Amino acid sequence: MHAHPDDESINNGATMAKYAAEGARVTLVTCTLGEEGEVIPPHLGHLAPDRDDALGPHRVGELAEAMKELGVTDHRFLGGPGRYRDSGMMGVEQNERPGAFWSADLDEAAAHLVAVIREVRPQVLVTYDPGGGYGHPDHIQAHRVAMRAADLTPDPEFRPDLGRPWEIAKVYWNRMPRGVIVEGFARLRRDLAEPGRLPFTQVAAVTDVPGVVDDYIVTTEIDGTDFAAAKAAAMRAHATQIAVAEPYFALSNQLAQPLLATEYYELVRGRREEGSRESDLFEGIPGLSDGATGLSDGATGLSDGATGLSEGTTSASDGTPGTSFEVAQNGTGL
Ligand SMILES: [Zn+2]
């Protein structure tokens, strides 16, 4: 569940590419078209909201390209493309404009996501923390909508016309451990000191990075090293929004920051083992990775969806009948 096109690649690109490559079903739900974004390439400056106001449709194309790079085939806009408009940064008049995501009715917006969740039946939902990671109104609203939808989908009384009730096993918020990002900025400063090495001149602050928390808050770490190139390519596809020079990138403010292939999460609903960090968003979900789901004999009731596995695709991690099976919703806005 994500607010704008590009947030998914920046926050979860490696995670999405990894699970898609493993055969999990990954669904991205993006809440707005990002119409209020600033445009980096000068030759596309006319798309800006104060000129042609044509950035939204252009970013739909960028998002489609990014999803190709990540191998994600199921990407949707909340309520359909253009249902909710980018609200701009906090405090601007666009926040209150009719159709702005920030002014959307919470339960109405959540119902759109409930419909997707009841259709896809994911085990995992990924969204932002209550502050939206860095305070952007659309990110805060994406958090509220995702959490509200997670509450509503299991309720048989809520909109039975939107599908059968479904309970998401685990909900995560995007996170960035302070130790990791501080170290990343130190590396960036060293590289910037070498003349001509990077196309950037200025460095962002740790406070510019969404979701930064003390390291102990982080429960889960997804090593996306094998998908670093895919993540960078996906970010590069959002050319109006991101300038990439691996392993760094800058947004329209031209302030460089680290591009990390390892992505971090805080588990906020669902169970996990105490102690060390998880290395898999699906860890501990009954019937998924214990090798006992027996997909081949249907004994777990795959055909009727009783275990919630009927919508997904299988991932034979070891080639034996004990198959792991994963369904993800990333949008992260999953
Ligand atoms: Zn955003």
Automatic annotation (TrEMBL):
It catalyses: 1D-myo-inositol 2-acetamido-2-deoxy-alpha-D-glucopyranoside + H2O = 1D-myo-inositol 2-amino-2-deoxy-alpha-D-glucopyranoside + acetate. Residues 275-334 are annotated as: Disordered. It is an enzyme of class 3 (hydrolase). Residues 310-334 have a biased composition (Polar residues). Zn(2+) binds at H4, D7, H139. Its cofactor is Zn(2+). Keywords: Hydrolase, Metal-binding, Zinc. InterPro entries: GlcNAc_PI_deacetylase-related, LmbE-like_dom_sf, Mycothiol_biosynthesis_MshB. Belongs to the MshB deacetylase family. This is 1D-myo-inositol 2-acetamido-2-deoxy-alpha-D-glucopyranoside deacetylase. It comes from Streptomyces capitiformicae.
